[in-house]
Amino acid sequence: MSSIRASLSSVTPTETLEIENGLSLVPRLKLVLTIYRSDLSVNPIDEWQFKNSLLDYLKNSISISYIIPEEDLIVHKYKDLKKRKREDPVAYGVLYVRDLGFLNRNKFNKEYEDEVKKKKVDLEKKFVEWRDSFVEKLDGIELSLKGVKFKLNVKIPKTDDFELLKKFWEEYYAFNSKGYSSRGGRQQPDTLVVRGLPSRWFAEPRVSSKPSMLVSHTIFSVFGKIRKLNVGTDDDLGENVDEGSDNIVPGLHCKIVVQFEKHDDFYNALKVLCGRSMQKGHVSELTMRPLGIGMISGIHCKGLEEIRIQKEVACN
């Protein structure tokens, strides 16, 4: 456990991290898709046709040495299309790039090979550059389905962008810490909220199917010393459930609130969790939902309304 904790600060965005209880954190790029009409047509969007058209575009028009499988792209049309205005989106979805190993091999990183061996932060820089370039190439493209044109909007989820989260909390505490330093302390976030994970992954085998405090503590202790831990079922996912996720069965998922003793442990844990999915064993049980089974989702730090904060937990 201590060896895992020691390696957290140096793990690269392309590395899989094995933790406790047969769980691992698997790197992936997740993009949120919003689809609009780009002509005057009123024909409904065909999800299957749009998926195939986008997959063909990714294969033929964007230089990426990895073929994205069909199951890593999900598209849903909105159910209330007849009530929506012409400028409203007609469909939404998620795209995953799960095999990031090509970033270790391509020419883009070749000249930095020696530096990467000495300092892994170089690969992190290359990942961010590739990620931003990939999003820029996809965002705003138009796809024609039998003469009907649709425009694609692409963005990285806030909870997958560590630097954005860091900027949020730094600005929040800089704005709200007036007079705090005079009391001999510095406000820093220390709490993570993880939602939508299978309860059975955190349960005691042959004892109960409900998430266990002991098992959860063992798993999250790999990230650092825990001050306070709260574990429960996540029946009411509320606003965290996106359209198309209404078939998530109540009682099968859990919500875990982890308050670390040190901000540094929170920092390293959040950095590792951003841009990764949780996997059990050797077979992935991930779904394609933004807040789905097996996905690290809803990672928050206290104090940021933009990413739904847990206000009841105190800061260091």
TrEMBL record:
Entry superkingdom: Eukaryota
What Pfam families does the record point to?
Answer: RBD_AKAP-17A
PANTHER family in UniProt:
A-KINASE ANCHOR PROTEIN 17A, B-LYMPHOCYTE ANTIGEN-RELATED
Q: Which protein is depicted?
A: Uncharacterized protein
Tell me what organism the protein belongs to: Aquilegia coerulea
